[in-house]
Write a structure and sequence with these properties.
11 helices
Length: about 250
């Protein structure tokens, strides 16, 4: 799995500084070889080419279509792309996923004029994606069924809360900014930070919130540290929002 964004940036700076100090070390030799391989892989394309990965949020269906069209063996690698970006798959707009579904359907039908085959192919890939990234199931799987509110809250209080380090705590960046749109709960702030994150992600995915960097990074942190709760709560929140009940 790719490193969290901030840690990856810190490691990259440290790597560059160490190479500048000890260019003859074995580690420097490996780094030079890796950068050489990376440069050659561009095959004439400018280094700015990599900027496309930071434009996923404004590129509509581009990112979801990478998941639909890559070989199954590369799914996990594609899913890790957002690990090093200040965004997340769960923050992509719902309309981007819908557009990708339509585009992939048209693409497959153009290859073989068989809509049923195309739908079966897409459904199979959606299940493969959801198996690796359960939090994406409510965005792509038509048969997704969320937990009830009681089940979700019980899961948080009985399981997730036990894994939260209360000593470290953590500022909750989602309140008061989105208090009116978030569930009316009043746990201590360290718990509320985790509790609110998937709900804020759902607000963003449905266009009801425009998140700041600190809020995005908090969502990514909770998504990484508490994936089971995040997937369940994100699915619940997204279903409620899509049905106009939140």
């Amino acid at each position: 799995m790719a490193q969290p964004l901030l840690q990856a940036r810190e490691d990259l700076v440290r790597l560059a500084e160490e190479l500048a100090v000890e260019p003859m070390s074995s580690e420097a030799t490996q780094t030079i070889r890796a950068v050489m391989d990376l440069a050659l892989s561009l095959n004439g394309l400018p280094p700015q080419t990599f900027e496309i990965f930071s434009k996923f949020e404004i590129a509509g269906p581009l990112a979801p279509l990478l998941l639909y069209r890559c070989e199954e063996q590369h799914l996990s690698t594609i899913l890790e792309l957002f690990d090093g970006l200040c965004s997340s798959w769960s923050l992509l707009p719902i309309k981007a996923w819908d557009a990708a579904f339509q585009a992939q359907g048209n693409y497959l039908v153009s290859r073989l004029d068989d809509p049923q085959w195309a739908l079966a192919n897409i459904t199979e890939r959606q299940n493969e994606i959801a198996a690796r990234a359960p939090q994406l199931a409510p965005l792509i799987c038509r048969d997704f069924s969320p937990l009830s509110w009681e089940e979700l809250r019980n899961h948080f209080t009985s399981h997730t809360s036990e894994g939260i380090n209360m000593d470290v705590g953590g500022f909750n960046p989602f309140r008061p900014a989105y208090s009116e749109l978030l569930p009316r709960e009043n746990f201590v702030e360290a718990l509320m930070r985790v509790f609110d994150a998937p709900f804020a992600a759902a607000l963003s995915a449905t266009g009801r919130a425009s998140l700041e960097k600190e809020q995005v990074l908090t969502i990514k942190d909770v998504e990484r540290r508490h994936p089971d709760y995040f997937a369940k709560a994100f699915g619940y929140a997204l279903s409620e929002l899509k049905n106009g009940r939140q």
